Amino acid sequence: MLLLPTGGAWAQGWPPWADDQERRAWRYERPYYRDVPERYWEGDGRPEPRHRPFAEAVQDGGARPDIAPRAPHVVGFSAAFPANSIVIDTGARKLYYVLEGNRAYEYRISVGREGFNWSGTEKISRKQAWPDWHPPAEMRERDPKLPEKMTGGFKNPLGAMALYLGNSLYRIHGTNDVKSIGRAQSSGCFRMLNAEVLHLASITEIGTPVSVVNSLPAEPEVSQGPESKTQGQMALESSALPERHEEHPVSVRSRNYQSLRQEMLRRP
Questions:
Q1: Which of 62, 180, 190, 245 has the lowest CB atom count within 10 Å?
Q2: Residues 6+ apart with CB under 8 A from 230
Q3: Distance (Å, rounded) from C-alpha 183 to C-alpha 86?
Q4: Does any domain span residue 223?
Q5: Does 50 map to a domain?
Q6: Rg of the Cα trace of the chain?
Q7: Is residue 78, in this structure, part of any structural domain at all?
Q8: Cβ distance 196 to 107 under 8 Å?
């Protein structure tokens, strides 16, 4: 096993020696057509097809270092979803793995940017460590430098693990771009830190239900009734009342007899 130092770089899932070069892979900081003379550009602002640079059909995704899974925090979770299911709150950029007892693991994620976000239900259909990446044709049309296939590795934008959602093109996967976590930047997939997606994969099974919602329902407000008094409070209040003396039953009967005798003596 590769022993790795701690730090911001490795917390994401790539070794420190990759910071200066591979960490910038697939950021698209410079559009490919900037290297093509403007005389070859079309009306849409891109070069003519015959002047566009093309990538190799298959590119190497780089090394596959060992990454230790890392569990996130456990939080309270009272939404009505079954235990052992995944709930994705796209508005909050959070993914929850629901536990028993109104609790859940809470992961920070990246979600689809405007026009690529979605909601619905799916199931985990496949899990793949260091998955290959096959950029869709429309993505390669936008950027011909993308290959038809990139093998799994730390240069691959799918990261160390991918959980496939049903038969769709969407996945929950790792990433080589830590800065995208917490933002809406993907094409509909859900990005996670490599160490955390490995933890999620370790506790999910094929068939685990996944619910994608725009936002979780607000927590209901619990009305507060009057406070119930403790025995100590009741005893304290009782001691503050004036002392009450009860008369003995014999003295009561004696007083009644004397009153009756005096009344009889007054009668004619």
A1: 245
A2: none
A3: 19
A4: no
A5: yes
A6: 36
A7: yes
A8: yes
Helix (H, G, I), strand (E, B) or coil at 254: helix
Helix residue spans in the chain (DSSP H): 8-12, 137-142, 194-203, 231-239, 249-266
Identify the pLDDT of residue 10.
Answer: 41
Supply the pLDDT for residue 35: 55
**By the 8 A CB rule, do 35 and 144 touch?**
no
pLDDT at 136: 85
Give pLDDT < 50 ranges for the chain. 1-30, 32-33, 51, 222-223, 225, 250, 252
What is the distance, to the nearest Å, from the Cα of residue 98 to the centroid of all Cα atoms in its chain? 10
* CA neighbor of 198 nearest in space, from 5, 67, 85, 84: 67
Gap between the Cα atoms of 53 and 56, Å rounded? 10
Domain limits for position 128: 8-213
Q: What is the per-residue pLDDT for 139?
A: 83
Q: Say which residue the tokens 């509909």 belong to.
A: 188
- pLDDT at residue 142 in the model: 81
Enter the pTM of the model: 0.64
Distance (Å, whole) CA 159 – CA 152 = 8
Tally of domains within the chain? 1
Q: Which two tokens stand for residue 226?
A: 């009057």
